[in-house]
Structures are given as C-alpha cells and as structure tokens.
From TrEMBL:
Protein name, entry field: Acetyl-CoA acetyltransferase-like protein
Keywords assigned by UniProt, alphabetized: Plasmid, Transferase
InterPro entries: Thiolase, Thiolase-like, Thiolase_C_2
Pfam families in alphabetical order: Thiolase_C_1
Domain Thiolase C-terminal residue range list: 256-380
GO molecular function (one): acetyl-CoA C-acyltransferase activity
C-alpha cells in the first residue's frame, strides 16, 4: 500500500467582492467549511501553511479559530502562493513529521490593476516607469508574439473567455456567472491589443482551505481517497520569456518554469498528459490558457486554434479546461487562486460538480498556476 498524501477536506468562500468581510475572515470561513467537510475539529490540525498577498498574515487567523499553539507558517510567492502553500503542506506530511494539516489562502485586493513594485522583484525603478510592471501590457505583448508564431486568432482568445463565463454559470463560488456571447467579447473595448476587457481576469477577494492527511489518517477518517500524486513548484530557467523577468536573451529558450514543473509532476505521478481527465490551467488572461495548454504538454503550439473551434476543452470535451470558469470568471485573489483550482479538481473527482461536472467518472485531475517573476506550480490528483 502506497503512502500518498490525501486531500480529506475542502472549503471555499465565494470569490468576487464581499464588502464588510476582511480577506482573513474569508479565509477563516473556508477553513471552518474544510474542517466540517473532513469531519475534524480545529484542535486536530497539527500545522498550517497560509498564503496571502495583500490581506495580512494568515497565521493571525488563530485568533478566530483557536489558540492551540500549532505551527503556522506564512507563504508569499506571487500568483503561485497558494500552490506553494499546498506544496509545503504535502512535504510536511510526506516527511513523516505530521499526519494532518492545512493549506489555506485568501486575499482582498483593492479595485483596479495589481500595483506591483519593481523593488520587490529586484528590478530598477525605470522598469516600472517605462510601463513594464503593468501586467496587462506584458501579457498582451507575449500573446501577440505567440499568435504570430503559431497562427492563433483573436477569435480563439474570445472562445476561451466565452467558455469561462459559460462554465461559471454552474459554479457557486465564481464571481462572474452570466454567460457572455463571443461577439460581445470580441467587440468589447480593447484593454491591451489583442485583449478586450472580457479577456482579462480581475483582482478579487476570496478564500480556499484544503485539509491534507497521510493515507493512514485519511483511512481512519473514512474519507474517499483523493490522492495528491504530484506537487511541484519551479522557478524560471535561462532564456524564458516571463512576466517581471528583467530581460530576455536574443533567440529565447525552449524551456519555461511551467514546462519544468509540468514535466517533473508527470514524472512523479507516473502518468502523461493523455491520462488527465480534467485540468485547471492558469488563465489570468485568455491567452494564458492557450499558451499553458501547450506548455503543460496537452497539445502542440498552434493546435489550440483547432481545439477551441472543435470544443475539445469544453466540460464534455476531450480535455475539459477550467471547469469553474477559471480566473477569468472567478477573479484572482492571489493567495487563494491556486488553491481554488485544486478545490475544483477535488469537487470534480468526487462527482459533485453539478451542471459543470465532467462526465465519465474522472479519475485524474491536473492544476497549474503561474506567476511573477516566472514561477509555476503544478499538482496532479488521482482517486
């Protein structure tokens, strides 16, 4: 019998805007829900890793949950913060030090674009003054180059956004739950060419909590075994073209942080891209989902044009992608976003997706999160 780390409890505070509730309180809400789902008390939790970018220190939630003296470590790692908290939590159990613990993420961002500071990324002030810290501009440049190199149309970007809003209709935790038709998406005001306003996610609020346990403990709790077969987090290699990277070598490189994290995760899990039944891929903008389909090994560069046209990434397609609407529909509270993807995958593997449930009793699920300055985290679940 293998000794996999298992996810035995999940909780989520709906994403979007929740006036009157702090980001930390949304995290506490998610933790209480996850404890109830796992059938345990706060006092049973031996350790926690928490992620938040702009809503305070996660460890201070012990004020609300109970002063048990437990180990609680804060994680701050850009958009990969939630994935990094999860990675740390599963390592703590794998080490044999603990049986059961928590990964939690939450955030509450002010309205408007993320206000990243060059100094926090070891960059000179001029980098920000020249406009390179505005992620909408960076990602527009990146996808424009990708579209040129691989024959991707703006219509395909629109199809990604259309699918996101359609899936989110069935996701209680999503922020934007109204379908938007392709024509409206394509004819909306441009933010940064080729992206219209419907093709970007928005900074948001929300919280997600996952209870992790050793296989032995999971069996004691009598929970269905959702196994964490792989969790990787990688930083950028030389020559990759990444957000907030200070430069790019002429000629570019073949590898990216995502390609490394993905390849390592598949190797750990002992399976390949063709074995995955459902995937949540980072889609802070419509083109990210397109590029990440290839970077994670699910298709070749350029094949996305056909995949989207033929509906292969729909809930009932060959590889359902972002079944709850992803970042485009849910918004992005940085600390919670990567954990939301894993939450959604557990829902799918349990068969609890309702109107967004992937058919055919899925057994494997993949999540991928990407952030500045070119960091990537991947998880693979199996049941």
């Amino acid at each position: 019998m293998s000794g996999d780390v298992c996810i035995v409890g999940i909780g989520i505070h709906p994403f979007g805007r929740t006036d009157g509730l702090s980001g930390l309180e949304q995290g506490v809400f998610a933790v209480r829900q996850a404890l109830g789902d796992a059938g345990i008390e706060w006092g049973d939790v031996q350790f926690a890793y928490g992620s938040s970018d702009s809503a305070g220190n996660p460890d201070t939630m012990v004020d609300r949950l109970g002063l048990t003296g437990m180990q609680f470590i804060n994680v701050r790692n850009g958009c990969a913060a939630g994935g990094s908290a999860l990675f740390s939590a599963q390592m703590a159990i794998k080490s044999g030090e603990f049986d059961i613990g928590l990964a939690v993420g939450f955030d509450k961002h002010p309205r408007g674009a993320f206000n990243a500071m060059p100094s926090e990324y070891n960059l000179p002030d001029w980098y920000g003054e020249a406009g390179y810290m505005i992620t909408t501009q960076f990602f527009a440049n990146k996808i424009m180059r990708y579209m040129h190199d691989h024959g991707i149309s703006q219509q395909t970007l629109g199809r990604v956004a259309e699918k996101a809003f359609r899936n989110a209709v069935h996701a209680d935790h999503a922020w934007r739950r109204e379908p938007v038709d392709l024509e409206t998406i394509l004819e909306a005001p441009l933010v940064s060419d080729p992206y219209t306003k419907y093709m970007f996610c928005s900074p948001a609020e929300g919280g997600v909590a996952l209870i992790l346990a050793s296989e032995k403990k999971a069996r004691e709790l009598g929970k269905p075994l959702v196994r964490l077969k792989a969790a990787t987090m990688r930083t950028r290699p030389p020559k990759s073209f990444e957000v907030f990277a200070p430069s790019i070598d002429i000629g570019g490189g073949k590898a990216t942080a995502t390609q490394i994290a993905s390849a390592d995760a598949f190797r750990m899990a002992g399976i390949g891209p063709g074995d995955i039944a459902v995937a949540q891929l980072q889609d802070t903008e419509a083109g990210a989902e397109i590029m990440h389909m290839a970077e994670n090994g699910f298709c070749k560069d350029g094949e996305q044009e056909r995949w989207l046209a033929e509906g292969l990434t729909e809930v009932g397609g060959k590889l359902p992608v972002n079944t709850d609407g992803g970042c485009l529909a849910c918004g992005e509270p940085i600390g919670a976003s990567g954990l939301r993807q894993v939450y959604e995958n557990v829902v799918q593997l349990r068969g609890d997706g309702g109107g967004r449930q992937v058919p055919g009793n899925p057994k494997t699920a993949y999540s991928h999160v990407y952030g500045a300055p070119g960091v990537s985290a991947v998880t693979i679940l199996e049941r």
